[in-house]
Specification:
Elements (H helix, E strand, L loop, with lengths): L9 H8 L2 H4 L13 H8 L3 E2 L8 E5 L5 E2 L1 H13 L3 E4 L5 E6 L4 H9 L33 H11 L15 E3 L14 E8 L2 E8 L8 E7 L4 H15 L10 H8 L1 H12 L8 E2 L9 E3 L5 E5 L5 E2 L1 H13 L3 E4 L5 E6 L15 E3 L13 H4 L5 H7 L3 E4 L13 E6 L10 E6 L11 E8 H18 L4 H7 L6 H14 L13 H11 L14 H12 L2
Parallel strand pairs: 6-7, 16-17, 17-18
Antiparallel strand pairs: 1-2, 2-5, 3-14, 4-5, 4-13, 7-8, 7-10, 8-9, 11-12, 12-15, 14-15, 18-19, 19-20
Amino acid sequence: MEQENTKINKYERYKLRLSPYDFFPQIATLDFDNLGDADRYYLQDFGIFNADFLEDAFTLRVRIAAGRLTPQEFSALAQIVSAYDLHIILTARAGLQLHGLDAKNILDVFYKVNALGLTTWQSFGDNVRNIVCDVYDGVGEFCEIEVYPILMQMQERVLKNPRYVGMLPRRISVGISGNRANVLSLFANDLYFALAQKENIFGFNVYMGGKNSEMAQNADIFLQTSEVSDFFVAFIEAFFLHGSRGSRLKTRLFYMLENIGIEKFKAYIQNEYKKPFQNAGQTILEKAKFNECQRLKDGSYAFCYQTDFARLNAAQMHCIAQYASEHDAAIRLGIDHNIYLLGLKEADTAFAPAHKNATILACAGSEYCPYSYWNIKDETSYLPLEKILKHRILVGFSGCAKGCARHQHSDIGLIGLRTNNFGNAEGGARVFLGAQHTKGKSVGRMIFSMVPLQHLHTLLNLIIAMYEESGYGDFEMYAQKVLNQYSEDFLALWFLLNLQTGQKIKLLARKNSSFEYEKSLFGVHFFGLEVLDFDDESFKKVISSLSKQLWTI
């Protein structure tokens, strides 16, 4: 740790006083009814979450390597959930959280879960979080390299390493894929090993600095499969030694790269890695749409069980475990909050989904997360679900700006917020559109800073209807060719005027980059409207006036 003690945040002072690894033996004797701030901080490193303003409620997060579970493990978890009357939430890192715990039973459940051969270590806190890969790793038709063995090597080198447990400047998220097409993009990770090819050899290009609101950037490094684990440890050590330990608002890797530049950080990594880097090869990623029943390389099938926006109960878990056991199927949790059964002999929908939401990622929501403004999973009634499903539109639905549903890595992204800008609105959402997520080109742009929930369904219906009129068969392509050619303010006003006039005027590819061109389109299609009295080089005043006119309750 290079920074002086006076400059570091309070969590770094905890680490200097006592490392989380050395704290761990104290867990057995803690008074969980009277935890201090330091106790709560240390417990996160072992998967136990408790907030001071929700001191009676505990959450246990389980780290599931690559999302892979045996039917026996899944059944055993279901028994624990049933015995303690708990609730399960699947996480966006292919793990799961047990909710409904309290001071009297948290320790019992902690020991029982870890005794199953699963682990809760480094699932919260300043750690290497669960390392994720594509759900069809090793078996899918797009797979070139099975990455599970590499993933396990990486995990084993840090999971219970005293140097790293809870000791990083901030959390590190890692993704790796040997598939040409992923069910979901992995560019939101701090470190992403993407399938690449160089001189006819398959390996990985390295991307760094992603987060929920940013795409990871190409580090111009190519690694062969045998080099990934050593590079990973060198990366972690470089971040451990040189990462910022000051304000928690600026300790993610993204800010470090923004501050010192990627080349300097690469030099830190190379100092630990010891070997020269190869320049990047060609990243191999293509767009694909996956079916509910997907044919695998060996001729067997996978079935995607769509959960109720990540919620799962003991009865559902028992049913899934029993079916998987009877059909000799493997169970994998996806980073899309769905459960996959692999190795089925027939393309059969094993049982009815809990909800038809294959392309919607919703965060835990206020029912389970103290940071969320409202209950996202129930507020999905404000979405045009049938149209989203029909067109396989990727939607990220976050309850706060932390963005756990990766809303800026989606075709349509939403953040739930409270608002009093429109009268007695129940709440509202920021609306983002147009992420170029498949190949990590750009995050979605904010089009509306606030839309009241009562009007969200109508607005999204209009946006999707205009996409239908466009003739493009994929929303991401439509965004690239049409939406992203226009300014955010133009799009906001275009949608508002279509709502006001009851139209859905098709938006064509832009022919001119000037503000005057955008303004002329309003004159052609909405001639005579008094609201179009532009008095400066901006649409903002008109947008504010018209949105309040349409949405004030």
